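Dear colleagues,

As part of the handover before I leave the project, I'm documenting each prediction I ran so the next person doesn't have to rerun anything. This entry is a single chain, and its sequence is reproduced below.
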Amino acid sequence: MRNVFVMVACGAVALTACDGFGQAVSSHTNVIARAAGHDLTVDQTAAMLAPRREIPAQRDVVEAVANLWVDYMLLATAASQDSTLGNVDLNPYLRPYLEQTMVVKLRDQVVQYDTVISDDSLRSQFERDQTRTEVRARHILLRLPPDATPAARDSVARLAQDLQRRAASGEDFAALARAHSQDGSAQQGGDLGYARREGPNSWVTPFADAAFAMQPGQISNVVETPFGLHIIKVEDRRQPKFEDESAMFRAEVVRQRQFRAESLYVSGLTDPLRLSVQEGAVDNAKEILRSPSTELRGRAGSRALVRYSGGSLTASEFLEVIQGWNPPTRGQVMAAPDEQIRQVLEGIARNMILVAEAERQNLGTTDAEADSLRANVRMQLRGAAQASGLMSIQPQDGETMHQAVERRVNSLLESILQNEQSAIPLGPLSYSLRRQFRGEIFNRSFDAVVARVEAQRPPASAPPAVPTTPPDTGR
C-alpha cells in the first residue's frame, strides 16, 4: 500500500561494547553454531563442504550453512515436541503485521480527502500535466570510459563537437548516427522511439532534460551522461488523448490527494515531538544490519537511536524491525548514504508514534484478525517443515529423539549441499524460533572451517604427463 502511513515504516525505504551483541563465548572452540542443545562443529561443516569443489571455501558460505543448520535444527526440535507446531511463539513475527493493521485503521479514521473531481477539472489538470508528454528523439552516442585519459577525453569531445556542427548545419542526422553512434540504435539512424519524462522507459536525467526542452527538428548541444557524449535531435512531441487515459489519471489524482492528506496528518502528529537521530546512530544501525541474527543485550540494546518527546527508538527495537526485512532490503539500506539511513531511522520512529496513537484511540486488531493471521503463518511453517522432511522424525534403534533430530537435520543439510534437495528459507520466522528455542552463530570459528576445507580438498587434477619414451606394449 503506497501511502505515507506505510512508507514511514520503511523510511520512504556488532556493537563493540562488551555488553553488546550476545555472542556468548562457547566452551568449545570447535563449534560454529548451537541450536536447542545441538552443536555444529568445524569438523562436521568441513566434512560436508570439502567434497563439493564447486562450493567456494569462503566465510560467507560457512555463515550461510550455519544459519540454515540453526533454522532447520530449531524447526525440527519444535516439530518433535508438537507435530502441529502450536508450541512456536509467533508473536514476535506477527507483531509488525498487527501494528500495521492498526496504522491502516488509524489512517482510514483520521485522514480525510476529497475524491470527487469533475470531468472539466480533470481535463484541465491533465492538459497542464507535462509528465505525460512523449518525445521521440534520435541521438549520436560517443562512448567515454570513466577511466579515459585527458587526451582520450579531448579527442572524443572534439569529434562530438564536430558531429554537432555538421548536424546543426543540416547534414542528415540519421546518416551521421549510422556512421558514428556507438550503441545499438545506430542501425536505426539513432532512433530511440518515444519516451516520457518519468517512468520505466524514461531516459537518463541529463539526456531527458535536454530532449524535453527542445521542439521537433532542433539539435542539442553536446550532452554528457554516464553513457558518454550525446548529440540529440527531437523528431516529435505528442500528448496522449485525455479520453484514452482519463480513468488512470483520475486514480492518480485521487492518490496524490490521499498522499498529501496523509503527509499533513503524519507531520502534524510527529513534528511537534521533535524527532532527533542521535550521534553515532547511523553507524550503530549499519552494524545491526550487518548482523541481524545476533542478539543485543544490556546497554547496547537499550541505546536510543532516535529520541522524541515521550519516547525513543532503541537499538533492540530497530533490530526487531529489520529482522522482518528480506536480505536484499537490509543490504540496500546498509549500503545507502548516511542521510538515507537517517531517514529510515526517522521513518521507523514515526511509525512507532502512529502505532501509539492507534492504541490511544483503541484501534487495536481484533482477536479474529490476529487468530486468522496466526493460523495462516502456522500453516506455512508446517508446510516448510513437511517439505523439508522435518515432521514426524522417528528415532532408529538405540537412538534418542535428540539424536534422531540431529541425524535428520545433518542429512538434510548434506542433501542441500549436494543439490539433491532445495533449501527452504524460513525468513523472519527464523528469528522467532531463535528467540524461543535458542540458536547462536559463532563466526569466530568460520576461518577454521575455511582452512579445514582447503586442507581436505585434493588438489585439482593435473593433466597426464607426456611419456618421454614409448610405452612398453609387450610386443
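Residues 242-270 form the longest helix (29 residues). Strands lie at 31-35, 38-41, 134-143, 191-196, 223-225, 228-238, 276-277, 304-308, 311-314, 439-441.

All the best with the project,
I.
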